[in-house]
């Protein structure tokens, strides 16, 4: 009986979430930059990077890491954060945003 109880606990959503480790910042950066480079001149939603890292069931858990890494990449000049189609200060933005590679105009 204890074995059966343990199996049920292991199959719970909480156990599954605990088993799914968050991606490293290096993996997050790679996902963001890879997706942003797929269509030059286009932007991506942060959720696209999160889904590519964690899958459809867990992507929300990766959003804080995506934002944190996006800010770092923007401060390094490797990424631009857009709000309403305009670049924003990476250290001072709110709301819905998109990510894109710097444009070479």
Topology:
Blueprint: H1 2-10, H2 13-19, H3 25-38, H4 46-54, H5 63-75, E1 80-83, E2 86-87, E3 98-100
Antiparallel strand pairs: 1-2, 1-3
Helix pairs in contact: 3-4, 3-5
Provide a descriptive summary of the structure in words.
The protein has 105 residues and is mainly α. Helix content is 50%, strand content 9%. It contains five helices and three strands, in the order αααααβββ. The chain has helices at residues 2-10, 13-19, 25-38, 46-54, 63-75, and strands spanning 80-83, 86-87, 98-100. α3 packs across α4 and α3 (25-38) packs across α5. It is globular, with a radius of gyration of 17 Å.
Average the pLDDT over all residues and give the rounded result: 87
Form type = globular
Helix content: 40-55%
Low-pLDDT ranges: 1-12
How is the main sheet built?
3 strands, antiparallel
The helix/strand order is HHHHHEEE
Strand order of the largest sheet: 2-1-3
DSSP helical segment count: 5
Structural class by sheet pairing and helices: mainly alpha
Let me know the number of strands. 3
Strand content: 5-15%
Instruction: Give the terminus-to-terminus CA distance.
Output: 68 Å
Radius of gyration of CA atoms, rounded to a whole number? 17 Å
List keywords for this structure.
single chain, 105 residues, mainly alpha, 3-stranded antiparallel sheet, globular, disordered N terminus
